[in-house]
Amino acid sequence: MIKILAVNAGSSTLKWKLFQMPRADVIAKGQIERIGFKDARLSITTMRDDFSEELTIKDHQQAVDKLLGILTEYKIVDKLDEIKGVGHRFVNGANHFAKSIVIDDTVLKEMEDLVEFAPLHNPANIMAIKAFRRELPNALSVAVFDTGFHQTIPEENVVYAIPYEYYQKFHVQKFGAHGISYRYVLQRFLKVTECNKENKRVIILHLGSGASVCAIQNGKSLDTSMGFSPVSGIAMQTRSGDVDPSMLIYLEEKLGVNSKSVLKMLNNKSGILGISGVSSDMREIMEIHQKNERADLALRVFVNRIVKYIGAYATELGELDAIVFTGGIGENIPRVRKLICDKLGIFGVKIDNALNEVKAKETKISAMNSNVEVWTIPTNEELMIAEDVEKLYNEKR
């Protein structure tokens, strides 16, 4: 039995879970929000109780120091050496990393060279990795890549129709995202359905604050909606999804701003928030959409973009065996699942309305006469990270 820490560092957040492996027991979990601000908030849940506090955290190093101090102060661990491995979610490993890897100085340098591919996420990942390596020098440090699962996507789905030399010289291509989540959900789907991954054609919908669609064939990613960056694909809570690039130049001129400002708008002020003008939270949209025209339009756009991707991917797969919902929206808002599935009649998709009322459970929600199985499977990216760390730890022993 070993203790493994799974870490997900954002630009101003540090989320984590401490596992007892291989039983996958969660000893404790928590997050530090608003790193770099005077009103940062730390919250922790243990097997005994919950607690939170407001404090000043200037950077990720200080956040890591605070977290590790609390682990011993509150006797979550007796000593830090009990933690044998730390797994880090790394958003974009470009086409350098296809699978999880032990982080040494050489690997860390290669990861630092990839910062430009995810400027909102990768720098924070690097800072957290360095901080944990400094404070836990005896723990195995492992990088788990969100883009790794999509390394199997064929070239015709990766290459953009722009001058080919940009792909060759600058790696301008589709990278995808949510790969750790897709890997976990696919693993669970194959287990609960007791089916072999060969010849299984599945579309997984990861619908959360970030959202994407992935077509999976023979256990491998065939195509996915997010591209060079996580702003592309379907409409999301605050991200626009696919837009016409010429529109961006038009808006730069009309608004008198630069391209970075427009990109910030696409990431932070668009999607459900941008259309509704009210909220980015789908739960709030569902409460008001029947009385608020813009909220209703935001909901319809969200569903519309997802359905279009499902249609394209089902055609690409040749046949569709299953659709799986995951992520905060996919797992917890039955009405959204129904709105999507009701538009997929051409594929013979039918859901059982009673079964569809489930939230946050592994459940088959399709009707008996549906041509396509429909499931909800809660994701657990942290457990996937912990399992990868455990595997590499055992290999090195």
Automatic annotation (TrEMBL):
Keywords: ATP-binding, Cytoplasm, Kinase, Magnesium, Metal-binding, Nucleotide-binding, Transferase. HAMAP family: Acetate_kinase (MF_00020). Mg(2+) binds at residues 8, 381. It holds the Pfam family Acetate_kinase. Pathway: Metabolic intermediate biosynthesis; acetyl-CoA biosynthesis; acetyl-CoA from acetate: step 1/2. SUPFAM superfamilies: Actin-like ATPase domain. It is found in: Cytoplasm. Its cofactor is Mg(2+); Mn(2+). The keyword Transit peptide does not apply. Substrate binds at residue 89. It is an enzyme of class 2 (transferase). One of its GO terms (molecular function) is magnesium ion binding. Catalyzes the formation of acetyl phosphate from acetate and ATP. Can also catalyze the reverse reaction. Belongs to the acetokinase family. PANTHER family: ACETATE KINASE, ACETATE KINASE-RELATED. Its EC number is 2.7.2.1. ATP binds at residues 15, 206-210, 281-283, 328-332. The record marks 178, 239 as: Transition state stabilizer. It comes from Liquorilactobacillus sucicola DSM 21376 = JCM 15457. It catalyses: acetate + ATP = acetyl phosphate + ADP. Its main location: cytoplasm. It comes from the Bacteria. One of its GO terms (cellular component) is cytoplasm. The lineage of its organism: Bacteria, Bacillati, Bacillota, Bacilli, Lactobacillales. This is Acetate kinase.
